[in-house]
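User: We ran a pulldown and think these components assemble together. Before we commit to crystallization trials, I'd like a predicted model of the whole complex to look at. Sequences follow.
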Amino acid sequence: MPPEDLRAEILRVVRRIPRGRVATYGEVALHAGWPRAARLVGRVLSDLPEGTRIPWHRVVSAGGRIASRPGASGQRGRLAAEGVAFRGGRVDLGRHAWRALPGPPA
DNA sequence: ATCTTGACTTCGG
DNA sequence: TCCGAAGCCAAGA
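Assistant: Here's a predicted model for the assembly, 106 residues in total across the polymer chains.
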């Protein structure tokens, strides 16, 4: 599957992440059909226009950490506005993971 | 064609 | 828990 289709597929996956839940880059890549393309997910999201309706803020790094980049704090704010709980600077995946439960048992 | 650079992940110390 | 190294895929120089 060429990168162009992969991009569309990634965006499709991100769009289905429900409000109040989060998914990791690796997970999005997995659901898009590219198990090891986590970095590409980040690349695709970085190309999104400012006014996009894609819920890019619901995509976080492994373990619920917010990816380092300019604007990271804004992402946290958006998530908090959706009711996502944080614990020690990390998203509480035990309560807000979209599907899998990568973190240790609560 | 080779090297560097990322909104990444996992493993080992 | 924090840090560094290695593996990862694509794009740009």
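Chain A has five helices and four strands. That may be worth checking against your pulldown data before setting up trials.

User: Thanks, that helps.
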